[in-house]
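Bumping with the actual sequence this time:
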Amino acid sequence: MNHVRAIGIGILIWIVGVSVYNLSFYISILEDAQQQANMLLFTAVIPLVWFGAKQYYKKDAKTHGYWVGQTFFLTATALDALITVPVFIIPNGGSYYQFFTDLGFWLIGFEILAITVMYWYIKTGAKKQNQTI
């Protein structure tokens, strides 16, 4: 597994995800801006992670999607701990505890893992099986 490549793609996914999340507060569709931001982020993660997995697997088809997804998620978690929570959450009255125990955080983490694993099985795992036949 190319850790540097996976971490770099994970950073890009995180940057776009945080940007989508923050920009959603400027567009008022729902009354609850926080719920709107979470829903938009949950939706945006699907194509972001799919695209990230596609970029990763252009050069490495051997690494299982679980490990790539885990690297994406751990990269996002580290950046959330270093940047998101102190810059965006704590000034608005939140805390590390609130952020990291929120069900939405873990759902998005599971989503990142699931999408990367699905990509691997659909695009890479099938090719690997066909080659062995």
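The tokens above came from a reply further down the thread. The chain has five helices and no strands.
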